[in-house]
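FORM 12-B: Structure-to-Sequence Request
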């Protein structure tokens, strides 16, 4: 009876859940439970799966017109597609193609967050890159994606139409950002794995991340630390489809975005946060942020503060 109810609820939300019979607890052991909690934010369908006591294995089936992003909130799981396993620890995510994926939880109190985004709300390039059949299932980590999903999808909330549209746009852009950054990182890693400049590329990454607070991060300084010329530095970044300047900009935007979602910086002006991460022009920062995430930083902060207020009334 329980398995039938879960299948009906999940199928209503577009996710078919199948409970494996031999995964139920033996007599004398605590029962294994699987609970699905569905809701929507604008056009994005969200499902949170709660599994306790190393809950039963189940199968996800995603419609072809949706892109599915699965984030491991708590615990750890193993995904299996076409016989190929993929371990998904807490805080990591993967994009799932329109096929069946078997999920095997391996920890007590496991939580999975599933976003179904209609592909028409994503750029064709990003939707295709996320579900490349040759890529298979891989676990990735992106701080901006993980933090945004944890905050704006923490609990089901009823947003007005305008706020829901803003948040759904933000979620789409953050997902695109994570896919784009991971694809660039994959390309650079693939190129560097068989090249002599792997150590230089790693040193360039570290130098950029340590000096993002500098508004004028010169390519010459990065190249000097990596012991190469500026031209060679640009060639090292080229396989990822991103220039050095774009990598610096995206890294700064990600740090600012995470600080805007931090309760510790809730009363700090947006301009101060942007200035602390190397942006010395407010209008330039706002323009780049909106182009990247589809929402202005002030509108994102208002949505976040509204959500915090709702949390305070609920708790």
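FORM 12-B RESPONSE
SEQUENCE OUT:
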């Amino acid at each position: 009876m329980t398995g039938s109810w879960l299948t009906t609820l999940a199928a209503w939300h577009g996710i078919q859940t199948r409970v494996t019979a031999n995964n139920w607890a033996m007599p004398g052991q605590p029962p294994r439970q699987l609970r699905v909690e569905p809701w929507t934010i604008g056009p994005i369908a969200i499902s949170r799966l709660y599994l306790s006591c190393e809950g039963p294995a189940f199968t996800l089936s995603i419609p072809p017109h949706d892109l599915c992003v699965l984030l491991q909130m708590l615990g750890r799981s193993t995904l299996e597609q076409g016989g190929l396993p993929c371990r998904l620890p807490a805080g990591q995510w993967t994009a799932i193609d329109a096929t069946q994926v078997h999920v095997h939880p391996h920890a007590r109190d496991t939580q999975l967050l599933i976003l179904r985004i209609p592909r028409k709300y994503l750029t064709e390039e990003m939707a295709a890159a996320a579900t490349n059949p040759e890529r298979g299932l891989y676990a990735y980590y992106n701080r901006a994606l993980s933090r945004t999903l944890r905050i704006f999808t923490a609990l089901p909330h009823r947003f007005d139409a305008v706020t829901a549209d803003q948040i759904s746009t933000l979620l789409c852009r953050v997902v695109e950002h994570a896919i784009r950054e991971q694809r660039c990182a994959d390309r650079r890693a693939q190129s560097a794995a068989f090249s002599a400049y792997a150590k230089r590329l790693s040193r360039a990454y570290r130098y950029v991340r340590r000096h993002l607070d500098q508004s004028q991060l010169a390519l010459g300084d990065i190249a000097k630390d990596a012991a190469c010329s500026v031209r060679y530095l640009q060639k090292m970044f080229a396989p990822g489809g991103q220039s050095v300047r774009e990598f610096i900009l995206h890294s700064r935007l990600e740090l600012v975005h995470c600080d805007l979602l931090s309760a510790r910086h809730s009363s700090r002006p947006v301009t101060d946060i942007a200035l602390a991460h190397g942006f010395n022009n407010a209008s330039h920062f706002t323009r780049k942020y909106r182009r990247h995430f589809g929402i202005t930083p002030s509108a994102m902060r208002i949505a976040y503060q509204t959500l915090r207020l709702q949390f305070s009334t609920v708790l």
